[in-house]
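SECTION: protein entry
WANTED: fold as C-alpha cells:
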Amino acid sequence: MIAYRGGYSGQSELIQKIDLIGSDLDNFSCPSCGSTDRERHLKLYLEKFCLDKFNKNLRVLHFAPESKIFQIIREVNPEIHILADLYPRDKLIKRIDIQNIPYDDNSFDLIIANHVLEHVADYKLALNEINRVLKKDGLAILQTPYANKLSSTMELIGELNDADRLFFYGQEDHARLFGSDIFYIFGSHLSDKVSCHSELALDACNNFAVNVKEPFFLYGKNVTNPYLKNTPENLQSDTDSKIAVSICCISYMHENYIYDALKSFAMQRTDFNFEIVISDDASSDRTREIIYEFRETSNLNINIIDRKINVGMHKNLSDALAKCRGEYIAFCDGDDYWSDPLKLQKQYDALRGDRSCVLAYSDVQAFKNGFIDYQYIGGATRDFSQVELICMPSINTLTAMFINVFDDMPEEFNLSGSPDMFLWGYLGIYGSGKYMQNIMPSVYNIHASGVHSLRTDFEKIKMRHMTAFALCVLHHRLSHLEVGLHFKNKLKVDLMGCINFFGPQFGIEFFEAIQSRLENLSPKIKGLANDLLVQLRTSIL
C-alpha cells in the first residue's frame, strides 16, 4: 500500500496526539487498483448495510464522487444519479452547493457526501439541506474525519494560512477539525444509523488495509428536524376550466416506454389545469392501445390524435401543437418521461414571473439499453439571451416548457431538419430562455427506434444546417434582414467546413434535402427559399 503524504508520521505533532480518525494514511492507496482506503472501507460497509436496500428506482445525489464508489452505485443501476461538486472538474458533474441544494424536499433515496463537511463554510446548513432533500426512508453516507481525543469540534477564529490549517486541521483546505462531538452534531440534524468496523464480521487476518477505527457514518432522515420546510403533499388544480398548460407528446412505436411517460404526466402536482395532447403516428405495435387504456383508467384531460397513415415527424408535431389550448406548452416524447412531480408547476411559475422569458428547460439523465449513459452530455445548462435563443441552441427537448405561439406554424418549419431546434430559434423572436437546475433530471431514453439519438454525426450536422436554412428563410420573409444575413453568412462558412471535413457528399445531400422540401411550400416562400438556396450554392460550390 502507498502512504498518503508520508503517512501518520508526516502529520503535525498536534494531529498525532489527538487520534485523528479517517483515512488510513499509512495504507492509503492500492498500487494495483488505485482504490483509496476510504473506498475499500465504504465498499465493505455498503455491501453489509445498504446494497440490498437499493431498488431500480433509486435516486442518488453524490457529492465529490469517488471513482470506485461511483462504479458501485452505477452497478446498482439507479433511476437518477446526480454527480455534484462546488467546483466540478468534469462536464458530467453538476455545480451544486451542498449548503443550498436546488432540489425539493424528499427527493433522494441516497445521498453520498464523503469528506465534504470538513470543507464547507457552514456544516450545519449543509446537514439541514441533506436532511431536507432526503426521502423519509432514505440514507445519507457522510464519512468525515474527526479527532477522537478532541471533545469539541475545533474551528479557530481569524484568518488562517495553509500552514496553520495543515497543523491544526490536518489538511490545507479544511475549515475545521471535528471532535468526538461529531456524532452529536450529525445526530441532531439527521437520524443516527452509525455502525462500526467490528459489525462487518470480517476475518481478523484480512482487514483490507482500512482504518478499523473509522465508523460507517450512515444516517436517515430526521422527520422532527425543525428546519424542514413545510411543502404541500398535494397541490389541487383550481376549478377554472381554462387550460394553463398543454403537455404535447408525439409517439411512434413506443410500446415499451409510453406508459412511463403517461404516468409521469399523471403525477404532476399543479395549482392550474393542464391537458395532454398525444399524437401517435400510426404505430403498429401496442402504443395506441396503451394510450387509450390509460385514458380510460385516469381522470386526466387527454386528447388523442390517432392516425391511420404515417405522416412523419414534422406533420405529427405541428398537428399536435395546433391542438394545444394552453397558454404554455410542455414537450415530452412518448419514449421519455419526467421524474419531478413539480416540474410543470416550477416552470409555469418561472415563466409567469418573468414575461421576458419565453422558454424554460432543465437537465436530463440519459439511459441506453436500460442503464444510465454517464457519457451522454445533454443540452444547455445556462440561460440564453434573446439573441442566443434565435441562434437555435441545443436544449433538452423533453424538459422544455414555452409560450404557445403556434396557432399557425410558420411554413419554414417544414424545411427544418430538427423541428425542436427550429422552435427554439422561432421562440427567440419573442424572448429569452431560462435554465432551471431546481428540477429533477428528466429521463431520456436512447434506443434503436429513437428518431434522433442513434443518428450518425453526418446526419445530425446535416439536420442542424437544414434548420439554420429554414430560420434564414423565415427571418428574410419577416424582414429581419440582419438576422437573416447572419444565418446566411454562417451557413456559408459552416457548410464549407463540413464539405472539407466530410467531403463533397455532404453538400450534395444538404442541397438535395432542401430542394426536395420546396415543393410543399406556398409560391411566395418557395420562391424566397429557392433564391437563397441558389445564392448559397453559388457561394460555396
Remarks:
- The domain at 8-220 is CATH 3.40.50 (Rossmann fold).
- The chain has a mean pLDDT of 90.
- The first helix runs from residue 13 to 17.
